[in-house]
Every structure is written in C-alpha cells, then in structure tokens.
Specification:
single chain; about 45 residues; mainly beta; Laminin; two-stranded antiparallel ribbon; NELL2-like_EGF
C-alpha cells in the first residue's frame, strides 16, 4: 500500500521515527504526496 502515499504515480514513502511521510509528487503532478493530480509538465 506504499505507506498511504500515492501509488499512481508512485511517490516515495519516507520512514521516520514513529511515523512516515510522503515524498513530493513528480514533475507534471500537483498534490501532497498522498494524492497527486496530473496537470501536465507545461503548466508547472
């Protein structure tokens, strides 16, 4: 389940002491790492 982070596109799940956080959405996407929405690379 990728630690609750986005699977499409795949976002890195970063383990921290007692918790975890999601990495950034890849280029062409916006969001918080849990969800990423495609906006197109030219709109960034």
């Amino acid at each position: 389940n990728n630690g609750g982070c986005s699977l499409n596109p795949v976002v890195q799940c970063i383990n921290t002491v007692g918790s975890r956080t999601c990495g950034e959405c890849p280029p062409g996407y916006i969001g918080n790492g849990v969800t990423c929405q495609y906006v197109g690379i030219c709109q960034i």
